[in-house]
Design a protein that fits this description.
mainly alpha
Length: about 100
């Protein structure tokens, strides 16, 4: 499991603050949380055993990069769990 980079201020409340901002897309919420924790995209991809391309597509809201909606939602949910963020608001914005 990836641990937050506490030197970069990776406190749980800062992740919640990043997610609480209105008018964000699902990908923007995930990217903000990942950056708050200080987790590089390649490290998250290695931890989840998915390609960096898939995570980039998720953060860019590029749903055409995924085989189906079930995979997209499962990946988003897993990313949220690893980043210790509430998946509900993210999943609400997914197809």
């Amino acid at each position: 499991m990836i641990e937050p980079d506490v030197q970069n201020g990776g406190a749980a409340s800062t992740v919640d603050d990043a997610v609480a901002q209105p008018a964000q897309t699902a990908g923007q919420m995930i990217r903000a949380a990942r950056e708050q924790w200080g987790v590089p995209l390649h490290a998250l991809a290695a931890n989840l055993k998915v390609s960096v391309h898939k995570l980039e597509a998720l953060e860019a809201n590029d749903w055409s990069a995924f085989p189906d909606v079930v995979f997209t939602r499962a990946l988003a949910s897993t990313v949220c769990r690893v980043l210790k963020m509430d998946a509900g608001p993210v999943l609400d914005l997914l197809p």
